[in-house]
Amino acid sequence: MSRLILAWCLTLSIWLCLWCSGCSPWAQSGADEEKDPNYLAGRSRKSAQNYSGAIGAFEKALEVHPRSAAAHLELGLIYYQHLPTNWARAIYHFEKYLELRPTANNADLIRQNIDYCKLALAKEVPYTPNNDLVRKEVEHLARENADLRQQVDELKAQLALRPATASAASNPSNATNARPLVPGEVSSNPVVQYAQLVERPAASPPGREPAPPSAGSRTHVVKSRDTFYSLARNYGVKLESLFSANPGMEPTRLRPGQTLVIPPP
Questions:
Q1: What gap in Å lies between CA 14 and CA 168, rounded to an integer?
Q2: Does pTM surpass 0.85?
Q3: 58: exposed, middle or buried (C-beta count within 10 Å: 0-12, 13-18, 19+)?
Q4: What would the pLDDT profile of 107-153 be if each residue is shown by its tens digit?
Q5: Domain residue spans in the chain?
Q6: Cβ–Cβ < 8 Å for 261, 211
Q7: Given 3-state DSSP classes, what are the helix, strand and coil percentages for the chain, each rounded to the nearest 5?
Q8: Topology of 24-124 in CATH?
Q9: At 259, is the secondary structure helix, strand, or coil?
Q10: Integer distance in angstroms from the first to the last C-alpha of the chain?
Q11: Yes or no: is domain 139-169+188-262 CATH 3.10.350.10?
């Protein structure tokens, strides 16, 4: 038993001597990584301001010694001091250095360098609004634009007919040459047909409902955003046919809940 105690004491003494002389396993690891030829080549190239060559040498040193804190520190300093556009890489190597040597004497300074790199990196990132909000706003504007286009097309169709009727009334020669229409007779002039269709709703009582649908016709309950133009396009019917089937409806004053007659295509 005394021999075991003596052997244990001897082993402890040898270990303490190695520790005091700097030959502990941890100290030996740090010494080995700084004696690596790639690490020494990186230090030499860094002194010569060959930073790209130094980076390549230090990265090879990390391939040999993946836990080389010294190589991580050198890489972090190069990206921090000499290649300031690579803040993210500097942060990575500084954090790896602190991970391997959390109680290093320069740990506080390295943390300050990390904070500076993060601040510089944040300033380089451009501000962009929320993509979802932008997309929804664009879709909303597109819908409004489509509705306005429909209303403009309808107004153009109506206004294009009014000058024709006004000019006929102001030109006596045209009035004398034109044969008056018999009640119930439809003119063969398409311009006059459009004028009759447009002017007819204004002469009708505002609260009048459309006539009962004829054979082959359908009905449609007006919804918000519905217009004569959009309904004619959706059902595939002519705009003048839709006007004729709904003589009591004002084209520009459709209200949700009203019932329209959709003539056959």
A1: 122
A2: no
A3: buried
A4: 999 999 999 999 888 887 665 555 666 667 777 777 777 777 777 87
A5: 24-124, 139-169+188-262
A6: yes
A7: 65, 5, 30
A8: 1.25.40
A9: strand
A10: 112
A11: yes
